[in-house]
Amino acid sequence: MLPLRFRGGCRGPVLSLVLAFSLLLSARAAAQELPSGYEQGLFEVRLGSLPAATLTVVVNDQGRLLLPLRPVLELGGTPMDRDASGNTIRVSALADGPPAVLDVAGARVLAADTLALAPGDLVQAGGEVYLAVPALALLLGAEAQVDWEALAVSITRGVPFAAETRREVESRRAVELRHQGGEVGLSGDTVSYRAVSGAGVVDWAVSGRVGSEPSPPSLRLGSGFSLVGGMLTLRGTLAADSGAAGLVDPAVAYHRVFPRGRFVRQLHLGDHLSGGLRARSLRGITIGNAPFLRRTRFDQVLLSPELPPGWQYEVYQGGRLVGFSDATAERPVSVPLEYGSTPVQVKMYGPAGEIRESSVIYSVPVTQLPRGVNEYAAGVGACPRGECTLAGYLDLRRGLTRTLTVAGGFEFEQPADSAGPALSPFGAVSALLRPGTSAEVQALLGSFVRGSLQHVAAGGVAHATAGIVYPGSGQFSFAPLASPRWQAGGGFSRSNVRAGPVRAFALNGRAEGTQEAGLDRVRVSALAALRSARLEAGYESGLPGSPGVIFLAPSVSLPRFVPPWLRGSGLSGSLAFTGGELRQAGFNTSLQTGPTSFATLAVQWLPDPSGMAVYLTFARRLGFANVQTQAASLRSQVQGSWSAEGSVAYGGRGGVLALPYRGTGMAGVGGRVFYDLDGDGVFSAGDRPLPGATVRIGSVSVKSGVDGAYRTWSVLPFEAAQVALDTLSLDEAGWVPVARSVELRPAPHVFAAVDIPLVQTREVAGQLIPGREVPTVAGVTLEIVSRETGDVQRVATFSDGEFYVSRVRPGTYEIRVAESSLRALNAIADPNPLVLVVPASGDVLVQAPPITLRKIR
């Protein structure tokens, strides 16, 4: 046998154990009938970054070390194939290279180099092939080092071994799954909505003109309230005309949403827009069961790539792991589809460490409904603009399958100048033809027929449209039509292009005409995006008074080294030619003059009599309003205009909050972040506010003030939102929010109050006590389960049975001994579980009662 040496620190029991193994191996060596002069022993073999394995090795009569081929290949996850004769072994060492060959009969290795084996460098015993270390390293495309002092072999190479790749994938996969498991998601329809009344918001906007054509100022006002859980809005404009002031375009609207309603989810009263194929103004009532805001989630699709045996795959959506297969089970992965574009990436891993990637994009238009979903909307009312006396519609939609949605209904109106009502049925079909390709067709009797086709692929989008518009009222045309008019168009765009200086490009075209006159209008254009510039060129015919126009529109971004007040600025221009003559020229630039302000300069030239026109605009966003001024010089006249707008939200915990944007139609959330020193969950005299903390309300982030208060008026009403504290903004790591997040559905035009108390985490300590005949209490796994959240934390006991857990939130927990540990010890725990209450105040260290392990007889 080999002389066995041990690293420093080995104890007597370890030495005895190794000597026992040596005796066992001596007997096994005799049974395997190794050639005379050969010896066996134990060596620690390590491949790359993989954990070391203790393998049986052979030393030949020349003192050279031979490693067992099959265990080493299995350690590295390297596939091998041995022919029927057993004389040829093919090893797929490198993922993208040809297999290396071990010619057992010819005693040679055929790999990157051909190596003839010296006598004694290859031996077969007990059904195993032992190969000299240099030959095995060549077979694996690696380098090897033997440490005789430590009885260890290290085999490394620049390319990871297949097992290293799988280990890295599994480790990354576990991290991602833990991260996703720790994410707090919304419960969707389980989040209740509380109908409230009160508070409100006031929008305001004032504008006027000065100069050669002055006009008196006009004031536009709007106010919103929450009424029985609905959104009540009043609007109107106060304008002065010839010295007399009057109210223009008054409007009153009430919008109630029933987020968890089954048959009715929306109710509109007063002034609102209708549904159907054509949106129009109604002053009446509309009901429907469509959601207030269509969710991003559409449906799901099962993805199951066809792969050779031994391959695994992972499926990612937007960089997020959504599913995977393993070597033992290839199951389809359910991929959630979203409205719009859903890019899906598939990463495939081969048995020899091969890595392949592919991608597919699913495109879902907003008109598509999931299978089995029915939606309806019906409305009737007066026409506030006077084009008719009465109008209404009925819109029915159903998702027949995941890829096919149909719609039908009718529109009717009572024209102001006609005695009989007009009834027009309509229909529509929306289909997902294949991943990334969607089509839609719509038709309204006596009005129009139109269709569209779109294909979205990685880095590119192609689209096509076509339609016919018929004469009649309410058509989408600038002038009354005398005969049906058709149009067709299409385009293609591509990004991430690497063709010289071009980074992206787009091609578009459109043609229009009538059945009688044929083609009478054409527009084609091409756009190329360069590194810091863009150029668009095109041709258009059929414009009134012009045989055809060639236009150019270049633009350029200013370099990064310009002064800060010019950064983000750009220059653009436009040129138009007709018959070789310049017919129009323009130039404009925008300057970022401050963090919340910008100025634009535009110059336009037209042939006489228009001449030159110059426009100068300055806009700034203040804390309470957006203000804008403009000066224009046109036909030797100077004109100017000015405007300002904003809103004020008030009531509840939010107090009074001035906003530089329109506030009606939104909701607010406000509260306080504080250290809950007395643990009662309410901010009181003994508690301490936390300034500078980041609070996330959905996708909005705000910081708490010096008094710990935060507030925002940027939340959609009726929709489930999550309020959570960003714990990375905390300076004291020992404090955590009582609840990781709060879910709510804000009512419109009011502040929802959400306080965020922080409590100090505790340390929990305890001990396992061994009963009679229980051999050990060291390394026993304990599970600490929160009764409030169900979260599980695992910890192992120390050698004396004690355990310690840090950063435990206050609450009620169950401490259990893991079933795997109980089975291994053939024992039961008393009690199991142990119920422990961790208080929010008091000592930081919480001592748990002992748990006794008893032997099962």
Task: Describe the protein in words.
The chain is mainly β and 857 residues long.
Considering DSSP H and I runs of 4 or more, what fraction of the residues is helical?
A: under 10%
Cα-to-Cα separation, first versus last residue: 44 Å
Question: How many DSSP H or I helices?
Answer: 5
Oligomer classification: single chain
Strand content: over 45%
- How many beta-strand runs? 62
Outline, from the CA principal axes?
globular
**Radius of gyration from the alpha-carbon trace, in angstroms:** 38 Å
What labels describe this entry?
857 residues, mainly beta, 24-stranded antiparallel beta barrel, seven-stranded mixed sheet, 5 helices, 8% helix, disordered N terminus
Give a concise summary.
The chain is mainly beta.
Topology:
Elements: H1 12-32, E1 39-47, E2 53-59, E3 65-68, H2 69-76, E4 80-82, E5 88-91, E6 100-103, E7 108-110, E8 114-116, E9 122-125, E10 128-132, H3 133-140, E11 143-147, E12 152-156, H4 162-182, E13 198-211, E14 215-227, E15 230-241, E16 244-257, E17 266-273, E18 281-288, E19 297-303, E20 312-317, E21 320-324, E22 333-338, E23 340-349, E24 355-364, E25 374-382, E26 388-401, E27 404-415, E28 422-434, E29 437-444, E30 448-457, E31 460-469, E32 485-494, E33 504-514, E34 518-529, E35 533-541, E36 549-557, E37 570-578, E38 581-594, E39 597-606, E40 611-621, E41 626-634, E42 637-650, E43 656-659, E44 667-675, E45 688-689, E46 694-697, E47 700-703, E48 709-715, E49 721-725, E50 735-737, E51 742-744, E52 751-753, E53 756-760, E54 762-770, E55 781-786, E56 792-796, E57 802-808, E58 811-817, H5 819-825, E59 827-830, E60 834-838, E61 845-847, E62 851-855
